[in-house]
Specification:
heterodimer; A: 772 residues; alpha+beta; seven-stranded mixed beta sheet; 20 helices; 20% strand; B: alpha+beta; 5 strands; binds FE2/S2 (inorganic) cluster
Chain lengths: 772, 150
């Protein structure tokens, strides 16, 4: 990426471009400290036996591979394994410990899970985002399990006076087959703990053909029963003795603040105990609170009623004119002019001029809100220079750092207890809600729960960006695509960290723009400027959503213009099986992964297209009013292709009889949870395609709840969603699962609508466009 | 003073009679199985059963349910093995799980009313319950499984 060649445009931007590997938190550090962030050394050295390298050690605090940190064995044989990542529905709290259990030969029915509190020096990086948990931790967890097994075996061999090579851990015991002796893990626990931890280099990992749990999908989530009986504990469910309930009226315009307020009427509401101001930070405020007026009550209902009675005069500040209609026009105008060039192969300008035909598509995607089913919520208990937090946080370590910094106390004095998350989708990577609780608890001298209402969540979140993607494709006489210019204009997530940000960051540009995999002679990717007027944040799949929508819609538009089948056109553009070379891209993010381990491999992309076409019955004849659409996309270093069948009736009512998705996520741990993630991704993809739009007028969000920010309900959900998982090659590294399912859905749906109706939708959401 | 009957137990309340049942359950008596998702009867996360009907606790005031039998997830089945709960586990329905209590209560109420709902009836009865994680396919299958015997 060549941002550096354009110094006049930097304006405070220069610091973040040093970051080549971004977690949602490290960008913050990278932006705050010149020179980027500092990595703590992992407790043990990078394993040389790993068949592949990942970006795990570039994350803040890297990985920790130490069985003493992650595994405890009680005398009764119960094995406790620490889950150090946050559970928000992906099943990670089950799958990572399951990897340890697999390698140590523990019997899953005798395994208990303990959730780690926020402590990255001890546990390694805890940022549960970026579809990274399995990809970064499959090998470390295997090593932890293998170390524990080796220690148990060594202890048994000593006890029996036989060489360690003669004993073997099998299903919760160590066995000496020559003598028929066996001894349970519980009986060995004390001795095993005295063994030294073996070096990672010397560990012997299990042969995958002996796996009992890994890759099988037979084990349910550890929280399944609790969820079905109502005892699963989310952030909202934490209750402490003497705890107060708070809701906060926050500035309706980003960067606004309280000019004056009158809490007298609120204080008269039954159950309201106090009205007080909460500190806010000037915009861009990173993950710090927006500030506002808090109402404290004996229960949440009283606090909400009290808040309704507040009289507040706001000072809206610089973003008071933000208007989505006008802003869309600005983005479109910017997309029609040259922008910062990020990738350049051949001569696009000349190739477009010389083309027989040029197809232009401009695709618009509005802001989106996460609306996780559990709105942000946190409990804090601050006493003197100590703070304890309970909450549904994706980033336990980051929350600890930010709370400590805000309160001005050492990190060691902050305990962050991670509850289950009632959905995250990137919203809960930002810990503003935990900081709010900490500030209020400190003031009140009592434990406080801050509950965001759904309206707060919709109006005061960190939204998915808003974008115009403009693609020009030049075709020669034979219909072959010879030129491809893609301009992407959108306010950047970096704007939440640094004022005057006008360009997208490498981690955004690397999500479907500069990493476009097609085999085309002349390619240029550009990023014109766009300034932000609200808080922009990571939303599941991030920039891949608008990019896949644009690129995969354009593929179908070209297919239509040249009278070819969508799937054939897609395969032709993907081109020959090869590793894509992106020499002109200076700062290729590649999801933070080394390109050697995780290159863009078009053979894998072709394969998911062919697989889904085969299994999903591409080309089958469908009834009148129905249509099939296809889309494929690589994101989070996984490869996905989706076919959607739609039916559109003569009133424009849209239904989805069938969805088929194929995913290649490399080596995998729990296919049952992969399936559930992809099923869910179809719903999220359909939600944003059909209904999703957060819009602004006079600086304020116009939506408030599920009536005007709609998501798909069961009666409009696809009738069937089929998922096909590509079996991994023997040493294909694991890749992402939580996010990759979303991006291809919208374009597959839109392409299907075109096939059914001849209507090409270029602006999402679909809304009433089919009724026209 | 208001007296409520919740999961067969008497509960007293001498505060605001307009307080919603949701916050009474969650904050005043600690029955946190019932969830808050929208506060406006739009999402179904707060679904409980009153007499034999699924209702949204977030828009129901405590005074509305005096002399009625309120059943929450905590009282749905003594060992948590209602047919709906079992079906949910058998099919691994939940992802994050936050909506699932509401879904289960809605499904249990549906089956009381219509023991053998068809595809369309399931979709219609469950349409008030949002699952942002998108577990709908499994929810539909689990209701069907619960109705045909787990
Ligand atoms: S919280 Fe009651 S319906 Fe959403
Ligand atoms: S399982 Fe997460 S909202 Fe339904």
């Amino acid at each position: 990426m060549n941002i550096r060649t354009n110094p006049k445009k930097l304006r405070g931007f220069e610091r973040y471009i040093k970051i080549d590997n971004v977690s949602r938190r490290s960008i913050l550090k990278g932006l705050g400290l010149a020179g980027g962030f500092v990595l703590a050394a992992p407790v043990m050295s990078r394993p040389s036996l790993a068949a592949y390298q990942t970006g795990a050690d570039k994350m803040p605090h890297g990985t920790v591979v130490d069985p003493r940190v992650f595994v405890a064995i009680a005398p009764d044989g119960i094995v406790t394994i620490v889950a150090h990542r946050a559970e928000m529905g992906t099943g990670v709290r089950t799958s990572l410990p399951m990897i340890v259990a697999e390698e140590m030969e523990a019997d899953w029915s005798r395994v208990r899970i303990q959730q780690a509190h926020g402590d990255e020096v001890k546990f390694g990086n805890q940022d549960t985002d970026g579809s990274r948990s399995t990809r970064h931790y499959l090998m470390p967890m295997r090593q932890i399990g293998a170390s524990a097994r080796t220690m148990l075996e060594a202890a048994a061999a000593k006890r029996w006076g036989v060489p360690a090579t003669e004993v073997k851990a099998v299903n919760h015991e160590v066995v000496h087959s020559a003598s028929g002796r066996r001894i349970g893990f519980g009986d060995l626990a004390a001795d095993a703990a005295k063994e030294s931890v073996p070096s990672v280099e010397g560990l012997k990992l299990k042969d995958p053909k002996d796996f009992r749990y890994l890759g099988k999908g037979q084990i349910s989530m550890v929280d399944l029963r609790d969820i079905t009986v109502g005892t699963a504990r989310y952030g909202a469910d934490v209750r402490l003795p003497g705890m107060k309930y708070a809701v906060i009226a926050r500035p309706p315009v980003t960067g606004g603040k309280v000019a004056s307020f009158d809490g007298a009427a609120a204080m008269k509401v039954s159950g309201v105990e106090k009205v007080m101001e909460v500190k806010g930070w000037p915009w861009p405020s990173k993950f710090q609170p927006l500030g506002g007026i808090a109402v404290i009550g004996r229960n949440t209902g009283a606090a909400i009623k009290g808040r309704d009675a507040l009289k507040i005069v706001w000072d809206d500040g610089a973003n008071g004119k933000y208007d989505s209609v006008a802003y869309r026009a600005e983005l479109e105008a910017a997309a029609r002019k040259p922008g910062l060039v990020l990738r350049k192969e051949g001569d696009v300008e000349a190739a477009l001029k010389g083309a027989d035909k040029v197809i232009v598509g401009e695709y618009y995607l509005p802001h989106l809100a996460h609306v996780s089913m559990e709105p942000p919520v946190a409990v804090a208990d601050v006493k003197g220079d100590k703070a304890e937090i309970w909450g549904p946080v994706q980033s336990a370590g980051g929350t600890r750092e930010d709370v400590a910094k805000t309160l001005g106390i050492p990190q060691e004095n902050v305990t962050v207890n991670v509850t289950l998350l009632g959905g995250g989708f990137g919203r809960k990577s930002k810990c503003d809600f935990a900081i709010e609780a900490a500030l209020l608890s400190k003031e009140l001298g009592a434990p406080v729960k801050v509950q965001w209402t759904r309206e707060d969540d919709v109006r005061n979140g960190f939204l998915h960006t808003v974008s115009v993607e403009r693609i020009e494709a030049g075709l020669d006489k034979s219909g072959k695509v010879t030129a491809w210019r893609h301009r992407s204009v959108a306010p950047s997530i970096a704007s939440t960290f640094a004022a005057n940000t006008v360009h997208q960051a490498p981690f955004e540009l690397g999500m479907g723009l500069v990493d476009m995999p097609f085999e085309i002679a002349n390619v240029q990717c550009e990023n014109p400027e766009a300034a932000a007027h609200t808080r922009i944040g990571w939303f599941r799949s991030v920039s891949n959503i608008p990019r896949a929508f644009a690129v995969q819609s354009m593929v179908a538009e070209i297919a239509h213009a040249t009278k070819r089948d969508q799937k054939d056109m897609l395969l032709e553009l993907i081109g020959s099986p090869r590793i894509v070379k992106l020499d002109s891209v200076k700062d290729l993010w590649n999801y933070g992964e080394p390109y050697d381990s995780y290159p863009i491999d078009t053979a894998r992309l072709r394969k998911v297209v062919e697989l889904v076409a085969d299994k999903g019955g591409w080309g089958r004849s469908v009834p009148k009013g129905h249509g099939l659409g296809i889309a494929a996309h690589r994101s989070f270093v996984s490869y996905i292709a989706t076919i959607v069948e739609v039916a559109v009736d003569d009133k424009g009512k849209l239904t989805v009889p069938r969805v088929d998705t194929a995913i290649d996520c490399g080596t995998y741990v729990n296919p049952e949870r992969i399936q559930s993630q992809i099923e869910g991704a179809a719903i999220m993809g359909m939600s944003l395609a059909k209904h999703g739009a957060i819009t602004f007028k006079d600086g304020k969000v116009q939506q408030s709840n599920f009536d005007d920010f709609r998501v798909i309900r069961i009666d409009e959900s696809p009738a069937v969603t089929n998922v096909y998982i590509v079996p991994p090659g023997s040493d294909t590294p694991p890749s992402g699962v939580g996010e990759p399912g979303v991006p291809p859905f919208a374009p597959a749906l839109i392409n299907a609508i075109f096939a059914a109706t001849g209507k090409r939708i270029r602006a999402l959401p679909i809304g009433k466009q089919l009724e026209a | 003073m208001i007296t409520l009957k919740i999961n067969g137990q008497q509960k007293n309340w001498d505060g605001d009679p307009d307080l919603s049942l949701l916050w009474f359950l969650r904050d005043e008596i600690g029955l946190t199985g019932t969830k808050y998702g929208c506060g406006q009867a739009l999402c179904g996360a707060c679904t409980v059963i009153v007499d034999k009907q699924a209702i949204r606790a977030c828009i129901t005031s405590v005074s509305d349910v005096v002399d009625r039998e309120v059943t929450t997830i905590e009282g749905l089945h003594p060992t948590g093995d209602h047919a709906v709960q079992k079906a949910w586990r058998q099919l691994n329905v939940p992802q994050c799980g936050f909506c699932q209590v509401g879904q289960i209560m809605q499904a249990a109420a549906l089956l009381m009313d219509n023991p053998k709902p068809n595809h369309d009836q399931i979709r219609e009865a469950m349409a008030g319950n949002i699952c942002r994680c998108g577990c709908y396919q499994r929810i539909e299958n689990a209701v069907h499984l619960a109705s045909t015997g787990v």
